[in-house]
Amino acid sequence: MRDRVGGAAAPIIAAAGVGKCFGALTVLDGVDFSVARGEAVGIVGPNGAGKTTLFNVLSGAFPPSAGSVSYDGRDVTALGAAQRCRLGVARSHQVPRPFGGMTVFENLHVAATVGGALRGRAAHRACLDSLELCGMLQLANRRADTLGLLDRKRLEMARALATEPQLLLLDEIGGGLSDGEAVELVGIIRQILSRGLTVVWIEHMVHVLLQVVLRLVCMESGRIIADGDPKRVMHDAAVIEAYLGSVSS
């Protein structure tokens, strides 16, 4: 993976007062959010809380309606997803989106060369490294449209990793997996973290998420309502109410 500069005081990614509106609908409402280099952060919340929209703004897929985004101390608010990817921001999607007519390796090579701007041996090495990390070397020559769900999820991660990111945004990568498959996924993500990458992970399978993250953020109605130690956050009255309704008697 690409060399990283350690010891920097500034967060690797930060959103300051970020808002996002679609017409009259406010999806993000003044979100302040930052992640330190090397952190493993989980994001939870009910459907419609704004979690994926926050990822879209952080990755550059959507411009914010208000506020700013900085990456590694640099204001990137005006940069699109392709530019941010080349700076080191990579993401997966809730629904895997492979190039179905290409092999697994070809999918990764597109990510490495187009997304990561790698060339020649560097691109080849990044693809092989990502395949090995995600346990997909034996599937390198399989067409992506023949893969099952777990392998498509692995391909989503491998393709993001082939860009050689410093920050990896995972959007419900565990969705639809069995508990056994989720265990394999956790193992891969732990290996990713051991390499020094920063991971922010949106996940509805909270019991899986808590096996990895050391910090948990809960969103509701476009705002962050809790942020901190995972156990404390999951016992927070506002979080319980967001998931289950009013906790008052």
What do you see in this structure?
This protein has helices spanning 51-59, 81-87, 104-115, 120-133, 149-161, 179-194, 206-209, 230-234, 237-244; strands spanning 13-22, 25-35, 40-44, 66-71, 74-75, 89-91, 167-171, 198-202, 215-220, 223-228. It is α/β, with parallel strands linked by helices. It has a domain at 8-83 and 202-249: Rossmann fold. Strands 6-7-8-3-9-10 form a six-stranded mixed sheet, with helices on both faces. β4 (66-71) and β5 form a beta hairpin. The longest helix has 16 residues, at 179-194. Residues 1-8 have low confidence and may be disordered.
List the main descriptive attributes of the protein structure presented here.
249 residues, alpha/beta, Rossmann fold, six-stranded mixed beta sheet, four-stranded antiparallel beta sheet, 35% helix, globular, disordered N terminus
Q: What's this, in brief?
A:
By secondary structure, the chain is an alpha/beta fold. It is 35% helix and 24% strand. A 6-stranded mixed β-sheet has the order 6-7-8-3-9-10, sandwiched between helices. It has a 4-stranded antiparallel β-sheet with strand order 2-1-4-5, with helices on one face.
